[in-house]
Amino acid sequence: MGAKFITLRTILTTLNAKYIHASLALRWLYVANKDAFDIGFKEYTIKEEIEAIGQDLLATKCDCVGLGVYIWNIEKIKDLISYLRLKKPDLILILGGPEVSYEPAYFLQQLPIDYVISGEGEFVLGELLYALENNKNISINGVSSLREISNAVARADIEKLVQLPSPYQLPEDIESRSKRLTYFETSRGCPYQCSYCLSSIEKGVRYFPENYVKENLLYLIQNGAEQIKFLDRTFNLNWRKSRPVFDFLIENYREGLSCQFEIYPDLLSDEIIDYLHSRLPANYFRFEIGIQSTFEQSNKAVKRKQNFNTVSQNINKLVRGGKIDLHLDLIAGLPYESYERFAQSVNSAFAFRAKEFQLGFLKLLRGTQLRKDAAKYNYLYQEQAPYEVISHNDLSVDDLNKIRKVEKAIDKYWNSGRFAQSLKALFDIFYRNRYFEFFLELAEHEEAELPENHSLEDLYAFLYNFLTDRNIYLPDAMRNDYYSNFSIRPTTAFWADTIPKKERKRLLLQICADSDFLLKNKLTEYNILKQTTIDHLWGNKYLLTVFLPEGRKQMEVNG
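RE: above sequence
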C-alpha cells in the first residue's frame, strides 16, 4: 500500500436530539476504521452551545472531523462548521448522513466543507481517509467533493460488517448504557416505496446473521441495557427472520428491560398475535405503528400500501391482548387529505386507544419523490430543515395550525398518562368517536384560560372546570388521576372537594382513635396524620388515600 504521506487525527461526531440518544452510525464508522486509522468519536446534543462543542472538538488536536447530519441537527451543524472553519481553516470536514446523502452537490456549494459521503459510509470512510493520508487521487463511489460529484449511494457489505468489532460492545458505552436508548439493527433497507420517506430510495432488505444478532442482544441484556430500540424499518417483514429474535428476547427476558419495534400491522396474523400474547411478559415490547392516513386516495398518492380493515382488526387484537404498548402515528399534510378528512383519520385511529398517539407533520425531505412532485400538489414547505409542510391544494395554513393545536393537546393530556381514567370515562360516554373535536375544543379553551406557566394543580383544575362547564362530572376519575402523580401525600387536596383544615384534622384524629380500623388496614397513626388525604364523597362518607412507600391505598370511611 506504500508509505503514508501523513497521519490524520480524525474525530467522528454528531449532535443528537437528546442525551438519551446514542448514535449507532458513529459507532459503526468507528469500529470499521479504528484499527487502521487514528480515529475517535464524540457525541453532543443540539441544546449544547456551538462554541463549547467546537472548543471540545479542537482540543482533541484533530486534523479531520466527520459530521453526521440529519434534519434535526443540520442548522446547528452549519453553525458548527462555520466555527470550526474559522478557528482551524485547514481542518478537513466530511459530512455524511441522510440529510446530505442525496444532494451532495448542494451542500458542497453551500457550506465550507471538503467531502460528502452518501449512504452507508463504514468502508467508504476508510477509503477516503487512506487516500487523504497517502496523497492519492480521490475518486471513490459515494464520496463527493467540488472536484467530483458521485451519484452513487454507498451500501456496506453486511458480511464484512459482522467481522468487525461489535459497535454494541464498546467499553466507551459501559457507564452510560443504562441511561440511554440502545439502537439496534437486525436488517437494513425497506421493501416499501412510500414517496415521502428516504427509506424508499433503498432497494431491498439485507439481514444480519441470526447468530450475530443473538450474540449482541445477549451482551446488551446481560450488561445493563434498559431500552433497546430496533431500527429495522419493518421488523415483522419476514416472520422467519423476526420470530427467532422474538423467541430469543422472551427466553432472555430481564425485568426492567423494554424493546421497541417498528411494525407493519398488515403483516400481522392471528398466529403471530396469539404467539405474542401467549408468551410475552407484560410491558416488555412496544410496537410503533405508522398508520399515516386512513384516506385511501392519500395512501395511493404516496405509494403506501395499506388495508385499513386489516390494520383495524390487528391493532384491536393487540390492544385487547393487553401485553404490548402501542404507539400509533398519523401524518398531517399528505396529498389530497383535507382538514375534514384528516379529522376523520384522527377519529378512526384514535379509537384504538393506544397508549401513545402521535400526529406528525409531513416533511418534504431532500431526495424523496414527494419533494420532487411538490408542484403537482401545490406544496409550500419550509426552505430550511425540517422542511415541514406549510400548505397544499387541500390544506391551508389555518388548517395545519388547528391540527398542531390538537397534536399538542393529545400529547399533554393523553400521551402523558396523567388523565388516563378521566379520558377513558370521557371518551366512553361523552365524546365517543369525536376525539379530534374534543382535543381541538380543549386546546382553544386552554389558550384563553390556562396560564402559560401553570402548575400541575392548575392543569387538573382547568380540565375539571372545562368539563363541568359542559355538564360533565368525573370527580372520582379525576381525583384518582391527580393522586397518581404523587408518591407522597400532595400538599393540596383534590381541588373540587377541599375540606376546611380544622374539619380535616378532626376527621383524621377520629380515624386514628379507631384502633380496630388501623389494625385491620395495617396502618399507623403516623400513616393517617402524615401520609393521608381525605376527600368528601357523599353524605357521611369520605375517601382516604394513603401514600405508602409500596404504593397508594384507598378506602371509604364514615365521618
